[in-house]
Amino acid sequence: MDAMPAPLRYPWDTPPGKGMATEVAQGVFWMRLPLPMKLDHVNVYALDDGDGWTVVDTGFASPETREIWETLLDGPLAGKPVKRVIVTHHHPDHIGLAGWFQSEHGARLTTTRTAWLFARMLLLDDQDRPADETLSFWRQAGMDADILATRASERPFNYADCVAPMPLGFDRIAEGSTLRAGGRDWIVRIGNGHAPEHATLWSMDDNLVLGGDQLLPSISPNLGVYATEPEADPVADWLEACERLAGYARDDQLVLPGHKLPFTGLPTRMRQLIENHHGALGRLRAHLDQPQTAAECFDVLFKRRIGAAEYGLALVEAIAHVNHLYQAGDVSRELRDDGAYIWQMKKA
Hints:
Blueprint: E1 22-25, E2 28-34, E3 41-48, E4 53-56, H1 63-74, E5 82-86, H2 92-95, H3 98-105, E6 108-111, H4 113-123, H5 132-141, H6 145-153, E7 171-172, E8 178-181, E9 184-191, E10 198-203, E11 208-212, H7 234-246, E12 254-257, H8 266-287, H9 298-302, H10 311-327, E13 331-335, E14 341-345
Parallel strand pairs: 4-5, 5-6, 6-7, 11-12
Antiparallel strand pairs: 1-2, 2-3, 3-4, 8-9, 9-10, 10-11, 13-14
Helix pairs in contact: 7-8
Protein backbone atom coordinates (compact mmCIF):
# COMPACT_ATOMS: atom_id res chain seq x y z
CA MET A 1 0.00 0.00 0.00
CA ASP A 2 1.41 3.40 -1.01
CA ALA A 3 2.17 5.85 1.79
CA MET A 4 0.07 8.99 1.98
CA PRO A 5 1.80 12.05 0.48
CA ALA A 6 3.21 14.45 3.04
CA PRO A 7 1.33 17.67 3.80
CA LEU A 8 2.65 21.04 2.69
CA ARG A 9 5.27 22.51 4.97
CA TYR A 10 6.89 25.94 4.91
CA PRO A 11 10.50 26.00 6.11
CA TRP A 12 10.47 29.83 6.29
CA ASP A 13 7.48 31.64 7.74
CA THR A 14 8.84 35.12 6.97
CA PRO A 15 9.90 36.38 3.53
CA PRO A 16 13.08 38.40 3.04
CA GLY A 17 12.69 42.11 3.65
CA LYS A 18 13.08 44.85 1.07
CA GLY A 19 16.57 44.77 -0.41
CA MET A 20 17.45 41.60 1.52
CA ALA A 21 18.09 37.99 0.50
CA THR A 22 17.55 34.66 2.26
CA GLU A 23 19.83 31.74 1.41
CA VAL A 24 17.47 28.78 0.95
CA ALA A 25 20.14 26.34 -0.22
CA GLN A 26 23.86 26.56 -0.84
CA GLY A 27 24.37 29.29 -3.44
CA VAL A 28 20.61 29.90 -3.93
CA PHE A 29 19.11 33.14 -2.63
CA TRP A 30 15.43 34.11 -2.33
CA MET A 31 14.41 37.75 -2.71
CA ARG A 32 11.05 39.47 -2.89
CA LEU A 33 9.96 42.48 -4.95
CA PRO A 34 6.77 44.57 -4.54
CA LEU A 35 3.84 44.59 -6.98
CA PRO A 36 1.17 47.35 -7.13
CA MET A 37 -1.80 44.96 -6.91
CA LYS A 38 -3.66 42.70 -4.51
CA LEU A 39 -1.02 40.00 -4.97
CA ASP A 40 1.56 42.47 -3.74
CA HIS A 41 4.84 40.66 -4.36
CA VAL A 42 6.81 38.39 -6.66
CA ASN A 43 9.61 36.07 -5.60
CA VAL A 44 12.88 36.18 -7.53
CA TYR A 45 16.00 34.11 -7.04
CA ALA A 46 19.76 34.47 -7.52
CA LEU A 47 21.97 31.45 -8.16
CA ASP A 48 25.67 31.81 -7.44
CA ASP A 49 27.80 30.83 -10.44
CA GLY A 50 31.10 31.80 -8.81
CA ASP A 51 32.11 34.72 -11.00
CA GLY A 52 28.58 36.05 -11.36
CA TRP A 53 24.90 35.41 -10.82
CA THR A 54 22.06 33.73 -12.64
CA VAL A 55 18.84 35.56 -11.75
CA VAL A 56 15.49 33.78 -12.06
CA ASP A 57 12.66 36.23 -12.86
CA THR A 58 12.92 39.98 -12.35
CA GLY A 59 9.78 41.80 -11.17
CA PHE A 60 8.09 44.77 -12.85
CA ALA A 61 10.02 47.45 -14.70
CA SER A 62 9.60 50.41 -12.36
CA PRO A 63 11.93 52.92 -10.68
CA GLU A 64 11.22 51.30 -7.30
CA THR A 65 12.06 47.79 -8.51
CA ARG A 66 15.26 48.95 -10.24
CA GLU A 67 16.31 50.71 -7.04
CA ILE A 68 15.73 47.53 -5.02
CA TRP A 69 17.75 45.52 -7.51
CA GLU A 70 20.63 47.99 -7.22
CA THR A 71 20.50 47.59 -3.44
CA LEU A 72 20.55 43.82 -3.81
CA LEU A 73 23.42 43.87 -6.30
CA ASP A 74 25.52 46.17 -4.12
CA GLY A 75 24.66 44.35 -0.88
CA PRO A 76 23.49 40.74 -0.49
CA LEU A 77 24.71 39.76 -3.95
CA ALA A 78 28.19 41.00 -3.10
CA GLY A 79 28.85 43.16 -6.11
CA LYS A 80 29.21 40.30 -8.58
CA PRO A 81 27.64 40.82 -12.01
CA VAL A 82 24.39 39.28 -13.20
CA LYS A 83 25.53 37.31 -16.22
CA ARG A 84 22.29 35.52 -17.05
CA VAL A 85 18.56 35.97 -16.48
CA ILE A 86 16.26 32.97 -16.66
CA VAL A 87 12.61 33.95 -17.18
CA THR A 88 9.98 31.34 -16.33
CA HIS A 89 7.18 32.95 -18.38
CA HIS A 90 6.20 36.14 -20.15
CA HIS A 91 4.00 37.81 -17.52
CA PRO A 92 5.20 41.32 -16.59
CA ASP A 93 6.00 40.57 -12.95
CA HIS A 94 8.43 37.88 -14.11
CA ILE A 95 9.99 39.36 -17.26
CA GLY A 96 9.62 43.08 -16.57
CA LEU A 97 13.30 43.89 -16.05
CA ALA A 98 14.86 41.18 -18.22
CA GLY A 99 15.61 43.72 -20.95
CA TRP A 100 17.15 46.09 -18.38
CA PHE A 101 19.48 43.34 -17.20
CA GLN A 102 20.39 42.70 -20.84
CA SER A 103 20.99 46.30 -21.88
CA GLU A 104 22.35 47.78 -18.63
CA HIS A 105 24.14 44.80 -17.11
CA GLY A 106 25.12 42.75 -20.17
CA ALA A 107 23.23 39.66 -19.02
CA ARG A 108 22.10 36.93 -21.41
CA LEU A 109 18.41 36.07 -21.46
CA THR A 110 17.35 32.44 -21.20
CA THR A 111 13.68 31.55 -21.63
CA THR A 112 11.27 29.57 -23.77
CA ARG A 113 10.62 30.60 -27.33
CA THR A 114 6.93 31.23 -26.64
CA ALA A 115 7.69 33.46 -23.64
CA TRP A 116 10.15 35.51 -25.71
CA LEU A 117 7.81 35.83 -28.69
CA PHE A 118 4.85 36.84 -26.51
CA ALA A 119 6.92 39.46 -24.72
CA ARG A 120 8.34 40.95 -27.91
CA MET A 121 4.88 41.04 -29.49
CA LEU A 122 3.11 42.57 -26.51
CA LEU A 123 5.73 45.30 -26.15
CA LEU A 124 4.61 46.58 -29.55
CA ASP A 125 0.90 46.59 -28.68
CA ASP A 126 0.49 50.14 -27.37
CA GLN A 127 -3.17 51.21 -27.12
CA ASP A 128 -4.79 54.46 -26.05
CA ARG A 129 -8.22 52.84 -25.81
CA PRO A 130 -9.33 49.20 -25.84
CA ALA A 131 -9.51 47.67 -29.32
CA ASP A 132 -12.92 46.94 -30.82
CA GLU A 133 -12.18 43.22 -30.60
CA THR A 134 -11.56 43.58 -26.87
CA LEU A 135 -14.82 45.46 -26.31
CA SER A 136 -16.72 42.80 -28.26
CA PHE A 137 -15.00 40.08 -26.22
CA TRP A 138 -16.03 41.74 -22.95
CA ARG A 139 -19.63 42.06 -24.15
CA GLN A 140 -19.70 38.40 -25.11
CA ALA A 141 -18.52 37.54 -21.61
CA GLY A 142 -21.39 39.49 -20.07
CA MET A 143 -19.19 42.15 -18.45
CA ASP A 144 -21.08 44.46 -16.11
CA ALA A 145 -22.41 47.37 -18.20
CA ASP A 146 -20.98 50.09 -15.92
CA ILE A 147 -17.56 48.46 -15.84
CA LEU A 148 -17.63 48.06 -19.62
CA ALA A 149 -18.52 51.72 -20.14
CA THR A 150 -15.72 52.85 -17.83
CA ARG A 151 -13.13 50.60 -19.43
CA ALA A 152 -14.16 51.61 -22.94
CA SER A 153 -13.27 55.24 -22.19
CA GLU A 154 -10.01 54.64 -20.31
CA ARG A 155 -6.49 53.92 -21.46
CA PRO A 156 -5.97 50.20 -20.86
CA PHE A 157 -3.02 48.56 -19.21
CA ASN A 158 -0.22 48.29 -21.75
CA TYR A 159 2.48 45.67 -21.42
CA ALA A 160 5.17 48.28 -22.05
CA ASP A 161 3.99 50.18 -18.97
CA CYS A 162 5.86 47.72 -16.76
CA VAL A 163 8.14 45.72 -19.10
CA ALA A 164 11.47 47.18 -20.20
CA PRO A 165 12.36 47.09 -23.92
CA MET A 166 13.97 43.79 -24.80
CA PRO A 167 17.02 43.67 -27.06
CA LEU A 168 17.20 41.11 -29.82
CA GLY A 169 18.48 37.69 -28.91
CA PHE A 170 17.88 35.04 -26.28
CA ASP A 171 18.95 31.50 -25.39
CA ARG A 172 16.11 29.05 -25.85
CA ILE A 173 15.09 26.36 -23.35
CA ALA A 174 12.41 23.73 -24.00
CA GLU A 175 11.08 20.52 -22.48
CA GLY A 176 14.04 18.35 -21.49
CA SER A 177 16.66 21.10 -21.85
CA THR A 178 19.44 21.09 -19.28
CA LEU A 179 21.48 23.97 -17.94
CA ARG A 180 23.93 24.60 -15.14
CA ALA A 181 23.42 27.31 -12.53
CA GLY A 182 24.17 27.70 -8.86
CA GLY A 183 26.54 24.73 -8.90
CA ARG A 184 23.75 22.40 -10.05
CA ASP A 185 22.49 20.86 -13.25
CA TRP A 186 18.82 21.55 -13.90
CA ILE A 187 16.33 19.94 -16.27
CA VAL A 188 13.53 22.01 -17.77
CA ARG A 189 9.95 20.78 -17.49
CA ILE A 190 7.32 22.79 -19.33
CA GLY A 191 3.99 23.80 -17.86
CA ASN A 192 0.97 25.39 -19.53
CA GLY A 193 -2.39 26.89 -18.69
CA HIS A 194 -1.35 29.91 -16.64
CA ALA A 195 1.10 30.92 -19.36
CA PRO A 196 2.03 29.12 -22.55
CA GLU A 197 5.32 27.20 -22.42
CA HIS A 198 6.01 28.09 -18.79
CA ALA A 199 9.46 26.83 -17.72
CA THR A 200 10.01 25.04 -14.42
CA LEU A 201 13.52 23.93 -13.40
CA TRP A 202 14.21 20.72 -11.47
CA SER A 203 17.62 20.19 -9.91
CA MET A 204 19.32 16.96 -10.96
CA ASP A 205 21.74 17.18 -8.01
CA ASP A 206 19.52 17.83 -4.99
CA ASN A 207 15.89 18.50 -4.06
CA LEU A 208 15.34 22.04 -5.42
CA VAL A 209 12.58 22.98 -7.87
CA LEU A 210 12.15 26.47 -9.36
CA GLY A 211 8.40 26.52 -9.89
CA GLY A 212 7.52 30.00 -11.16
CA ASP A 213 3.74 30.39 -11.20
CA GLN A 214 3.15 26.79 -12.31
CA LEU A 215 3.85 25.42 -8.82
CA LEU A 216 2.36 27.77 -6.23
CA PRO A 217 1.32 27.02 -2.64
CA SER A 218 -1.95 28.26 -1.11
CA ILE A 219 -3.21 30.07 -4.25
CA SER A 220 -4.12 28.79 -7.69
CA PRO A 221 -2.63 30.61 -10.69
CA ASN A 222 -5.05 32.50 -12.89
CA LEU A 223 -6.15 30.63 -16.02
CA GLY A 224 -7.37 33.30 -18.39
CA VAL A 225 -8.82 33.65 -21.88
CA TYR A 226 -8.35 36.92 -23.74
CA ALA A 227 -9.53 38.56 -26.94
CA THR A 228 -6.29 37.50 -28.63
CA GLU A 229 -7.44 33.84 -28.52
CA PRO A 230 -11.10 33.83 -27.49
CA GLU A 231 -11.65 30.10 -28.05
CA ALA A 232 -8.64 29.02 -25.97
CA ASP A 233 -8.94 26.25 -23.38
CA PRO A 234 -6.24 26.95 -20.76
CA VAL A 235 -8.03 24.72 -18.24
CA ALA A 236 -7.28 21.68 -20.42
CA ASP A 237 -3.69 22.88 -20.82
CA TRP A 238 -3.38 23.34 -17.06
CA LEU A 239 -4.78 19.94 -16.13
CA GLU A 240 -2.56 18.16 -18.65
CA ALA A 241 0.53 19.96 -17.37
CA CYS A 242 -0.31 19.27 -13.71
CA GLU A 243 -0.88 15.56 -14.34
CA ARG A 244 2.41 15.32 -16.23
CA LEU A 245 4.48 17.34 -13.74
CA ALA A 246 3.00 15.37 -10.83
CA GLY A 247 5.01 12.42 -12.11
CA TYR A 248 8.23 14.21 -11.14
CA ALA A 249 7.06 15.41 -7.71
CA ARG A 250 8.56 14.11 -4.45
CA ASP A 251 7.73 14.92 -0.84
CA ASP A 252 11.28 16.06 -0.06
CA GLN A 253 11.57 18.62 -2.85
CA LEU A 254 11.90 22.25 -1.81
CA VAL A 255 9.81 24.24 -4.25
CA LEU A 256 10.82 27.86 -4.84
CA PRO A 257 7.63 29.47 -6.20
CA GLY A 258 6.94 32.74 -7.96
CA HIS A 259 4.66 33.92 -5.13
CA LYS A 260 4.02 33.08 -1.47
CA LEU A 261 6.49 30.94 0.53
CA PRO A 262 8.88 28.13 -0.43
CA PHE A 263 7.36 24.78 0.48
CA THR A 264 7.72 21.02 0.57
CA GLY A 265 5.01 18.42 -0.05
CA LEU A 266 4.77 18.88 -3.82
CA PRO A 267 2.81 15.64 -4.53
CA THR A 268 0.06 16.86 -2.23
CA ARG A 269 0.07 20.30 -3.83
CA MET A 270 -0.14 18.85 -7.34
CA ARG A 271 -3.21 16.88 -6.32
CA GLN A 272 -4.76 20.02 -4.83
CA LEU A 273 -4.08 22.06 -7.97
CA ILE A 274 -5.79 19.43 -10.10
CA GLU A 275 -8.75 18.87 -7.77
CA ASN A 276 -9.33 22.61 -7.42
CA HIS A 277 -10.33 22.92 -11.07
CA HIS A 278 -12.23 19.65 -11.23
CA GLY A 279 -14.25 20.92 -8.27
CA ALA A 280 -14.88 24.26 -9.98
CA LEU A 281 -15.99 22.50 -13.16
CA GLY A 282 -18.38 20.32 -11.19
CA ARG A 283 -19.99 23.35 -9.55
CA LEU A 284 -20.15 25.09 -12.91
CA ARG A 285 -21.96 22.17 -14.54
CA ALA A 286 -24.65 22.35 -11.88
CA HIS A 287 -24.91 26.14 -12.22
CA LEU A 288 -25.32 25.91 -15.99
CA ASP A 289 -28.46 23.87 -15.61
CA GLN A 290 -29.92 27.31 -16.33
CA PRO A 291 -28.49 29.68 -18.97
CA GLN A 292 -25.81 32.02 -17.67
CA THR A 293 -23.22 34.45 -18.97
CA ALA A 294 -19.61 33.89 -17.99
CA ALA A 295 -19.84 36.87 -15.63
CA GLU A 296 -22.80 35.23 -13.88
CA CYS A 297 -20.59 32.28 -12.90
CA PHE A 298 -18.33 34.11 -10.44
CA ASP A 299 -20.05 32.94 -7.25
CA VAL A 300 -19.92 29.23 -8.03
CA LEU A 301 -16.40 29.30 -9.46
CA PHE A 302 -14.67 31.39 -6.81
CA LYS A 303 -16.96 30.94 -3.77
CA ARG A 304 -16.29 34.51 -2.65
CA ARG A 305 -17.30 38.03 -3.51
CA ILE A 306 -15.42 39.45 -6.50
CA GLY A 307 -14.62 43.14 -6.14
CA ALA A 308 -13.49 45.69 -8.68
CA ALA A 309 -9.82 44.87 -8.15
CA GLU A 310 -10.31 41.19 -9.07
CA TYR A 311 -13.06 41.62 -11.66
CA GLY A 312 -10.86 41.43 -14.76
CA LEU A 313 -8.97 38.31 -13.67
CA ALA A 314 -12.20 36.67 -12.51
CA LEU A 315 -13.83 37.34 -15.87
CA VAL A 316 -11.06 35.81 -17.98
CA GLU A 317 -10.94 32.76 -15.69
CA ALA A 318 -14.72 32.31 -15.88
CA ILE A 319 -14.46 32.36 -19.67
CA ALA A 320 -11.70 29.74 -19.43
CA HIS A 321 -13.97 27.37 -17.53
CA VAL A 322 -17.04 27.76 -19.74
CA ASN A 323 -14.77 27.41 -22.78
CA HIS A 324 -13.46 24.14 -21.35
CA LEU A 325 -16.96 22.71 -21.01
CA TYR A 326 -17.85 24.00 -24.48
CA GLN A 327 -14.77 22.45 -26.08
CA ALA A 328 -15.61 19.18 -24.31
CA GLY A 329 -19.09 19.26 -25.84
CA ASP A 330 -20.85 19.53 -22.46
CA VAL A 331 -22.45 22.95 -22.92
CA SER A 332 -24.03 24.97 -25.69
CA ARG A 333 -23.79 28.71 -26.17
CA GLU A 334 -26.04 31.23 -27.82
CA LEU A 335 -25.50 34.92 -28.56
CA ARG A 336 -28.10 37.14 -26.87
CA ASP A 337 -29.45 40.32 -28.42
CA ASP A 338 -27.19 42.38 -26.15
CA GLY A 339 -24.09 40.67 -27.55
CA ALA A 340 -23.47 38.36 -24.57
CA TYR A 341 -23.06 34.61 -24.86
CA ILE A 342 -25.29 32.54 -22.64
CA TRP A 343 -24.03 29.09 -21.77
CA GLN A 344 -26.10 26.08 -20.71
CA MET A 345 -25.52 22.39 -20.12
CA LYS A 346 -26.77 20.23 -22.97
CA LYS A 347 -29.80 18.15 -22.12
CA ALA A 348 -29.24 14.40 -21.96
